[in-house]
Every structure is written in structure tokens, then in C-alpha cells.
Design goal:
- With about 650 residues, the protein is α/β, with parallel strands linked by helices.
- It contains 22 helices and 24 strands.
- It has a five-stranded mixed beta sheet, with helices on one face. Strands 13-19-18-17-16 form a five-stranded mixed beta sheet, with helices on both faces. A five-stranded mixed beta sheet has the order 20-22-21-23-24, covered by helices on one side.
- β1 and β2 form a beta hairpin.
- It is globular, with a radius of gyration of 27 Å.
- The N and C termini lie far apart (about 55 Å).
- The model has no long low-confidence stretch (mean pLDDT about 90).
Length: about 650
């Protein structure tokens, strides 16, 4: 369609979600602090204000129409945006030099672009709550209440570990009851960190641990994930450099690393083991569908929300932990070094990988995990210019990988690798893939003997919840499910550089595909060093020793396993009463379930038609994405409010 932009006729996309995105597509980036294309439109910051047909309005909340006259930059708009920034800065902790996001903060960027050198308003000190309880660090003094973290946690990941609390100047983002993040159902996926425009949410920085190990004379071994090489280019100005990984290997060895291995090698190893595990399950018809287990955010999500499916998770460790186990158990002997003297540094795109390395059952395999962002800090602080460092290959024997191993860095990589391993054994005849919706793809594999295998590839935990619920209801028949907690897979991990939105992730995916495309090996079955590992130590897939070294266990982390709480019991026959259960779990409570409970008690005590209501409190209906939840007899009322529940109750009373 045609609109007028700053006096010029401009053709924009007819299907643009809003004016902000339409203008972005034609090269005009409207300032914004609270807009995420992946979530609902919030419109809180007002920075994206423009003039439309003579009226000021937010560009994120208006749909373009034919002939609209838009002005994106006038003296009035400039002053309003500048004023908004000053108001935000007046209540913002401006200790930028010690902030984890210094130099990569959207608020700081706009303050520079708008030339703000002095804030006209008095400094207003906000509540200075700093939560160091988990891998993710929360500092409310730097929060600008944009709501990005709240919406991505609730709408994209369906977890709802954090939300708004209080009102007006007292408003804050926090877990329910002011709890520490470690005591919630947070899975440490880091998507809140990935989208936070300031330093209110960051991750624990572990760079000092690496340097301390060097000082202690440890034998330092690094290993780097595929997704890191596709994103660190953004930080270091190495666009379209297909040998970035080799430059980083050389750099790390220059500053004291003894060896640097490729996690893609371990991806080949994991795919090989996991493929045979899947084949065995198929033949026995047990523990299906098999869920992949290389994503620690997804694993923790399953432990919290779907413990009944833990036996369905592949018991094969993630590539990070598998390689850690191999290095400490076998490689240490080969080079004649005590495993205690090896310090293994895993370089990952993911915040949850820090948690994974510290799990009880995996502790000691990987000594420290640093993210892409931390690696870029090490490089920049060293004074080295990565562009000038010639590339060198990863060290052997754990430096060779296939295209399949490299593809672990983006969604679909694990499933396709498993398929590559089994292609000949299963005699695959055809593979057909279709996208059910964004983030959910289904693949049907036909074999020569007429059998059919169905796989689902899903990213985002909200999408994962949809898939699992369909499986539980019997509406989706599937044999294997690949799950990645972050949109687009590991390239969208919480430890990646900011910005970390859909546009950037799409670009990273393209870069990784180009890197994958130059690898001469296609399948893990072609990886000589990986097969030699089996021949020398592991014997064969799923052997006793392979289970001991490459497999792990999971635990039920469901926070509340108690039964219902009797609040207003009725000592009458079941048929004569209507039982209402109100979920009081973290997500539902934060969305108002306690108020609903109070209203129901009042209703039962005051209304004649409601005298036979039996009221109970319950916990976690596994429907957090649609909080608050209430059960009326056996019917779940999602996104409940008292009026909605009254309608269901009155209908139930009529039937009775």
C-alpha cells in the first residue's frame, strides 16, 4: 500500500503488523524501548511516537492504512522523546561503567543519540533489589518497566516466573511474593536477559574463574559451540567471515589455553548415541515419543512441568557434558595429566548451560561455562584484533565434525542428525516436512518397508507446551520430538549479544548455514575420530560403558506436589455440590488468583444459588501460559476472572 512518510510517497508491506514494523522495512528505525515483535503490543514507553494525519500516536499500536500521512521526526516529536528519556534516566541507576551492559544498552544508546548530557529532573531512587540467587542476576534499580522480560517469559515461554508488582512509582518487576528467582519455576533459558534493553537482567559473569585457573597453572582446555561462531561476529565486526572459529582458536591459545576443541564433534557423538537409543525404543515400542535432551532449559522445564515425561527424554548427555566426560575420563590419560589439573572451559551461547554444568549428577565434567558475550569481553580486553589473527584448526582428536554436528546450533539440527545416522539402517525412502505454525514443524519419514516415522521440531517453551498437551490428549501421534527452549535454537540463547531479536536470529541462522555448508563431512557416521572413540573406549552405542560415560538421569523438580487445600469444604454428597479449585501457584497467584479465591468465598457466603460451592486451593495445573486457572468440577477455566467463573458456575447449577 502507499502512504506518505515525511512528505514522500512510500510503498509499504500490506501485511505489516503495525506502522513501526512497516517503517522499519523501508529503512526507518523508530526508537522504542518496549516493543517485541514476538509478543503482544504493550505501548508503555511511548518512545515510538510519530505524527499520523496531524495527531501524535505510538507507531507500535497503529495499523497502517492507505494514504496515511506520517511524520517520524519533527521538533515536537524530538522533544517528547528526549523528555521521555530524561524521565527514565531520573529514576535509573546510572552507574554505567560497572554495568554488565555498558556499551551495549539501548537506554544508553538513545541517551547518546539524543545528546542528553544533563537530566533536568531530580534523581529519584528506586528500590535497589539485587538478586544473585541464580545464574540470572536481577537488579531492579536498572529496570525501566518496559515489560519485555515479563511478556517473553509469559507469552513466549509460558512460564510466568516474573511479573509486575505494586503500582505507580513503587511498581517493580519481580517473582511472586518477592521471592528469589532461584526459588521459582524459572528454567534459566535467559530469554528475559536476551530481551532486556538495560542491565536490569543479566547473567553471572565467570571470566575471573578462567583467569584464576590460568594463574594456578591448570591445563586449560576450551571447547566452543557452533552457535558462538555465528554470533560473535556481531560484537567484533567480522561479518561474513567463515573462518571466525579458527581465529578464535588461535586467540585462545595465544592467551594461555593449551587445547581448543569443537563442541560440534561432541554433537556428532551425541547424535550417534541418541540415534541408536531412538532405534531401540522404536523396535521395543517403549518410552515414545523420545524427546531430545541437549537443551538444558527444556530439560529443566520438563522437570518442573512434565515430570511424567522424564522417562521419554533421551538419557544421552548434551554435547557439552558428553565432551566434558570424555576429556576428563579418557583424554586426560592419553596426555598423561591428572583430570584434577585440567580446567575445562565451555564457550556457549546459553545461560542455562551454566546451570547444567553445576547439576549434581554432572558436576565436575565441565569446570566453567562462559557465554558468547563473555568471550567477546575477553577478546576486547586483551587488545587483540581478531581480524588480524590467522585462523588455525581446532585441536585433534575432538576438532573434526560433520555438517550435522554444526547444525546443532540452530533448531532442527538434532533431529536431522539423528535421521542422518539412521538413514541407511532404516532405509529411508522419503522425507516430508511442513510447518504447522511458527516454531513447530512436523516431519514424516517413509521407509522402504512401508513404515512411517513422525518427528516434530519445536522451539520456544510456549510452543513446546502446546505440542506436549496435544500428545497427552492423543491429538498428536509422534515418535521423536526435538525441543529448543529459545526461538531459532541455540543461536537465540540468553548468552548471545544484544540485540537478540527475530531479525538478528534470522541472520545468525543464515551465517551458521553457510558455515555448515563448507564442511566436507555430512553425517556423524563419517566422523573418523568419533567412530575411533567407540572402537577404543565405548565399544558400541548403548553399551554398558557408553551408558556410564554418555548418559545421565533427571529429577522431578515440581515445586509443589501436595494435594488440594480445603478452604470451604462441604460435608455433603459429591453429586449435590460444585467443587471449585483455584490454582495458587506462582504464575496464577501473580495474575490474581488469590483475589478470585476471595471473591468465590464471598459469593458462597452471600449468594443463595452458590451455597453448595465447595472451594479448594490447588497448585500448578500445568497451564501457566493461560493464568490464572480455576477448575469447576472437571472443567478448567483459563485466563479466569470472577465474572467468567460465575457464568460457568451458573451453567453448572442449571444442569444440576
Amino acid at each position: 500500500m502507499k502512504i506518505i512518510v515525511n512528505g514522500k510517497e512510500t510503498i509499504i508491506n500490506d501485511n505489516a503488523r503495525n506502522l513501526l514494523e512497516a517503517l522499519r522495512d523501508v529503512g526507518i528505525e523508530i526508537p522504542n524501548l518496549c516493543y517485541l515483535s514476538e509478543t503482544s503490543i504493550y505501548g508503555a514507553c511511548r518512545m515510538c511516537i510519530v505524527e499520523v494525519d496531524g495527531q501524535l500516536m505510538t507507531s507500535c499500536s497503529i495499523k497502517p492504512y492507505e494514504g496515511m500521512n506520517v511524520k517520524t521526526h519533527t521538533p515536537e516529536i524530538y522533544e517528547m522523546r528526549r523528555g521521555i528519556l530524561e524521565l527514565l534516566l531520573a529514576s535509573h541507576n546510572r552507574d554505567c561503567t560497572t554495568c554488565e551492559r555498558n556499551g551495549n544498552c539501548k537506554l544508553q544508546k538513545y541517551a547518546e543519540e539524543f545528546g542528553i548530557r544533563k537530566v533536568r529532573f531530580d534523581k529519584l531512587d528506586k528500590s535497589n533489589i539485587i538478586d544473585y540467587s541464580s545464574i540470572i542476576i536481577r537488579d531492579n534499580s536498572k529496570c525501566i518497566l518496559c515489560g519485555d522480560c515479563v511478556r517473553v517469559c509469559d507469552e513466549v515461554q509460558s512460564i510466568g516466573a516474573i511479573d509486575f508488582a505494586f503500582r505507580g512509582f513503587e511498581a517493580q518487576v519481580m517473582p511472586a511474593f518477592g521471592e528469589e528467582l532461584a526459588n521459582t519455576n524459572c528454567v534459566l533459558c535467559g530469554q528475559c536477559v536476551a530481551h532486556c534493553p538495560t542491565g536490569a537482567l543479566t547473567f553471572r559473569n565467570d571470566i575471573q574463574k578462567v583467569y584464576k585457573a590460568m594463574e594456578e597453572g591448570k591445563y586449560i582446555i576450551g571447547m566452543m559451540a557452533p552457535a558462538v561462531r555465528a554470533s560473535i561476529q556481531e560484537e567484533l565486526g567480522l561479518e561474513n567471515d567463515v573462518v571466525t572459529a579458527g581465529r578464535i582458536v588461535n586467540f585462545l591459545k595465544s592467551i594461555g589455553f593449551n587445547k581448543v576443541f569443537d563442541v560440534a564433534f561432541a554433537a556428532d557423538l551425541v547424535a550417534y548415541e541418541e540415534a541408536h537409543e531412538f532405534k531401540e525404543r522404536l523396535e521395543k515400542g517403549e518410552k515414545l515419543p523420545q524427546f531430545t535432551s541437549c537443551c538444558p532449559g527444556w530439560v529443566k522445564f520438563a522437570e518442573h512441568n512434565y515430570p511424567e515425561f522424564l522417562e521419554n527424554l533421551s538419557s544421552v548427555k548434551s554435547p557439552q557434558q558428553a565432551l566434558g566426560s570424555i576429556i576428563k575420563r579418557y583424554y586426560a590419560k592419553e596426555i598423561g595429566i591428572d583430570p584434577e589439573d585440567i580446567y575445562l572451559v565451555s564457550i556457549m551461547p546459553c545461560t542455562a548451560k551454566k546451570f547444567e554444568a553445576e547439576r549434581e549428577e554432572l558436576s565436575g565434567e565441565v569446570d566453567v561455562v562462559i557465554t558468547t558475550k563473555e568471550l567477546s569481553q575477553i577478546i576486547r580486553s586483551s587488545g587483540f584484533n581478531l581480524k588480524d589473527i590467522p585462523p588455525v584448526p581446532f585441536d585433534r582428536p575432538y576438532g573434526l565434525s560433520s555438517q550435522s554436528g554444526l547444525s546443532f546450533g540452530k533448531t532442527g539440527g538434532v533431529f536431522s542428525s539423528v535421521l542422518n545416522v539412521l538413514e541407511d539402517e532404516l532405509e529411508v525412502e522419503s522425507v516430508k516436512t511442513e510447518e504447522l505454525e511458527k516454531g513447530i514443524r512436523i516431519t514424516t519419514v517413509k521407509t522402504k518397508n512401508g513404515k512411517s516415522i513422525t518427528g516434530v521440531v519445536v522451539f520456544g517453551l510456549g510452543n513446546t507446551r502446546k505440542v506436549i498437551d496435544k500428545i497427552k490428549e492423543g491429538n498428536l501421534k509422534v515418535d521423536i520430538v526435538e525441543v529448543m527452549a529459545c526461538d531459532f535454537g541455540c543461536i537465540g540463547g540468553g548468552g548471545q549479544p544484544y540485540p537478540n531479536d527475530t531479525r538478528v536470529r534470522t541472520k545468525r541462522s543464515k551465517i551458521l548455514s553457510e558455515v555448515v555448508g563448507i564442511d566436507v563431512l555430512i553425517s556423524p557416521t563419517e566422523n573418523y575420530h568419533m567412530l575411533s572413540l567407540y572402537e577404543k573406549y565405548l565399544k558400541e552405542p548403548l553399551s554398558h560403558i557408553a551408558h556410564e560415560v554418555l548418559h545421565t538421569t533427571y529429577k522431578n523438580r515440581k515445586r509443589i506436589n501436595n494435594g488440594d487445600i480445603e478452604i470451604l469444604p462441604l460435608p455433603i454428597e459429591k453429586e449435590k455440590k460444585t467443587t471449585v479449585k483455584v490454582c495458587l501457584g506462582t504464575s496464577c497467584y501473580s495474575k490474581g488468583s488469590y483475589e478470585i479465591l476471595s471473591e468465590l468465598i464471598k459469593l458462597a457466603n452471600e449468594e443463595e444459588w452458590a451455597k453448595d460451592l465447595e472451594i479448594k486451593g490447588t497448585f500448578c495445573l500445568e497451564n501457566c501460559g493461560k493464568s490464572p486457572n480455576v477448575i469447576v468440577n472437571d472443567k478448567i477455566v483459563s485466563e479466569a476472572n470472577i465474572e467468567k467463573i460465575k457464568e460457568v458456575l451458573k451453567e453448572d447449577v442449571k444442569k444440576g
